[in-house]
Design brief:
By secondary structure, the chain is α+β, with helices and mostly antiparallel strands. The chain is built from 17 helices and 24 strands. The chain is globular and about 90 Å long.
């Protein structure tokens, strides 16, 4: 028999009355009433109330503190004051003996039950305490259930789980690599994988038909509320002899089933909508639209083609129409204008509204003649008591700014259905984009197949080439990306050449993949749903760190383990690294 416990703290019921039992757990609450002490004992499974034997009262007061770990022996009694909020609320344990297994300090850095209101860095410094909070604890347990459900579903669909290396070579995945210096090979570096991209393609070339793994990925990116800094996990999978639709079907099957099985909210019915990247940007102003928001963006440039309003002249003009509420005042329009100034750095926000007689008023009403009015009525389906916000700029910026206005407007008008998951696919992403220096760069995934193959690469403007690349989106978050892979050497060479990588560099950086393509590569395609983000959505969290056991903080620091940190000179010597201090560097530059 286990010397610490015979039962867990969620196990005993009214049918167990009179049984002698032993429990172990953490002291969640102590209620000392003088002649009696009540204790809530918490373990991984739940809570049981203890009543301390009157002969043990003083010893208990002397030895036990909140969050200490105890093992107790006693008899199960029926509670006179039952607690319907916990599963063991009909019983309590009359304690005959206890032992402190680990004593907590009298002064805790914070109360566990109130940890969610504590500053994040303090919570993360004492994460072992924070994780005792029931809310966070449930998040981590749910994460485990989600991972199991993913594995079960992928195995059911015939995928084979294979682990790929963590130490690998640098690859242009769109973010900075984490580099690892080699001790055995001076001056050379491994890179932690941004994704198992090359390896999963090599597995298809190796004859594995369907692969998956729950893969750790590493990217040196700036932290965000919806992105874990440094590392994250994804359900990575790849399929041989597959087209785009095959991958979308797997994503829909696996991800939608997760949301349906593990949540009580409404989930988008199958088949999911396919929205092109171009349409997403023009209609929603983003490639990850929140479809719970019914507002859309409309191109009204034609309505103002003869306008004398200087701000709109020769600009792309986007409009968002919404229904006015009874309490919509001028202040509402002014506050949206302030949002545009503060958050989007716009000079203001043009707007109009209609009344019961379809008369127009607003900040630019004087520039709306009858012809423009009729065009706007037609383009926007204006009715009585409609409101419209306008954004005017060059095409890309007008779309993006209008998208931000749409999101904010949906929130302020309370249009978002918080009890649903709206999923869709964004397809036909551009193969290339311009980087900050105006050079051609990869937009999404360099290993994707361009639609039209070599002909598109040879005949089209690179910025007009679209690829078999796609995202799965839920409630305004990208939860998966994927693509049909390029398996042709000549197309691969041309794809990278356009992005500024000469053939020899491609051979050097992707030698194994380049070589493997020469040995009969099958067409293949795959995707990678993000585990952390899916858990975040299923748990209704706004911060991804709430669903990760030991996350980095908002500055990408691990304040619990004190990482990153300095290492000894001996460790640096072992890997042939010499630190150049900033002051020394500045002195050399001065010389």
């Amino acid at each position: 028999m286990n010397k610490y416990r015979t039962n867990t703290c969620d196990e005993l019921r009214i049918t167990d009355v009179s049984k002698n039992v032993r429990l172990a757990g953490f002291v969640k609450k102590i209620r000392d009433l003088g002649s009696v002490i009540f204790v809530d004992l918490r373990d991984h499974y739940g809570i049981t109330q203890l009543v301390i034997n009157e002969k043990l009262l003083q010893r208990f007061r002397d030895e036990v503190t909140l969050e200490s770990t105890l093992t107790v022996s006693g008899v199960v009694l029926e509670r006179s004051n039952k607690n319907k909020n916990i599963s063991t609320g009909d019983i309590e344990i009359y304690v005959h003996e206890f032992e402190v297994l680990g004593k907590a300090p009298a002064e805790l850095p914070f109360q566990v039950d109130a940890s969610l209101s504590v500053k994040e860095d303090l919570r993360l410094e004492y994460r072992f305490l924070d994780l005792r909070n029931e809310h966070i604890h449930k998040n981590i347990v749910m994460r485990s259930k989600i991972l199991k459900a993913m594995r079960d579903k992928m195995t059911e669909l015939g995928f084979v789980e294979i682990q790929t290396p963590i130490l690998t070579s640098s690859s242009p995945e769109g973010a900075r690599d984490f580099l690892v210096p080699s001790r055995l090979h001076p001056g050379e570096f491994y890179a932690l994988p941004q994704a198992p991209q090359q390896f999963k393609q090599l597995l298809m070339i190796s004859g594995f038909d369907k692969y998956f793994q729950i893969a750790p990925c590493f990217r040196d990116e700036d932290p965000r509320a919806d992105r874990s800094p440094g590392e994250f996990y994804q359900l990575d999978f790849e399929m041989s002899f597959a087209e785009q639709e095959d991958v979308l079907n797997v994503l829909e099957n696996v991800v939608c089933s997760l949301f349906k099985e593990l949540s009580n909210k409404k989930v988008t019915s199958s088949p999911l909508r396919r929205i092109t990247f171009k349409d997403a940007m023009e209609i929603y102003g983003t490639d990850k639209p929140d479809l719970r928001n019914p507002l859309v963006i409309t191109d009204v440039t034609k309505a103002f083609e003869n306008t004398e309003f200087g701000v709109f002249k020769n600009k792309n003009i986007r409009a968002i129409r919404f229904d006015l509420k009874e309490n919509t005042t001028r202040k509402f329009f002014d506050q949206m204008g302030e949002f545009a100034k503060q958050e989007l750095s716009l000079s203001g926000l043009a707007w109009i509204k209609t009344d019961d007689n379809m008369n127009i008023s607003g900040s630019i009403a004087k520039f709306i003649d009858n012809d423009t009015k009729e065009k706007l009525i037609d383009l926007l389906s204006l009715t009585k008591n409609s409101g419209v916000f306008f954004v005017a700029d060059e095409y890309n910026k007008a779309c993006k700014d209008a998208g931000e206005i749409r999101i904010e407007l949906g929130k302020r008008l309370d249009l978002i259905d918080k009890d649903s998951y709206e999923l869709c696919f964004i397809v036909d992403f551009p193969m290339y984009e311009l980087d900050d220096d105006g050079n051609i760069a990869f937009n999404h995934n360099p290993f994707s197949m361009p639609i039209g193959g070599m002909e598109s690469l040879l005949k089209k403007n690179p910025l007009d080439i679209v690829a078999y690349q796609f995202d799965m989106v839920c409630n305004g978050y990208e939860i998966s990306s994927g693509a049909v892979r390029n398996h042709d050497i000549k197309i691969m060479e041309k794809v990278f050449e356009i992005a500024g990588y000469p053939k020899e560099e491609v051979k050097q950086r992707f030698g194994s993949l380049y070589k493997a393509f020469s040995y009969g590569a099958p067409p293949h395609a795959g995707a990678a749903p993000g585990v952390d983000r899916i858990v975040m959505l299923l748990q209704d969290e706004n911060n991804i760190r709430e669903v990760i056991a030991f996350p980095k903080n908002s500055k990408a620091r691990d304040v619990l383990m004190n990482a990153p940190a300095r290492v000894s000179n001996k460790q640096l010597e072992d890997v042939h690294i010499k630190l150049v201090e900033k002051e020394d560097k500045e002195k050399k530059e001065d010389k």
